[in-house]
Amino acid sequence: MKGNMNNMMKQMQKMQKKMMQAQDELHEMTFEATAGGGMVTVKANGKKEIIDVEIKEEVVDPDDIDMLQDLILAATNEVLNQIDEKTNDTMGQFTKGLNMPGMF
Fold first, then answer.
1. Which helix (H) or strand (E) holds 90?
2. CATH architecture of the domain formed by 21-93
3. Vertex 14: Cα angle to 89 and 21 (nearest 5)
């Protein structure tokens, strides 16, 4: 019985190390989304930190600030969704079959 417990603990430690490596790799990735046919581009890293926003000059209309705000929101939300999907795909492999509520 003790041997099985030690073996299980080693496997859990190995899985934890792989999970941490995967998370580190995710944090280093860059994600990009656009809105308005490329008029607004938002880039973020895997930590969900916005690292760049590009706005084409022709979309800047002082009389239509609402449209520009909508484009920025749309691109930002899309890039954050991309990060969530990649995180769930990557980290989900570690919880497959474990049936643990609240885990990815």
1. helix 65-95
2. 2-Layer Sandwich (3.30)
3. 50
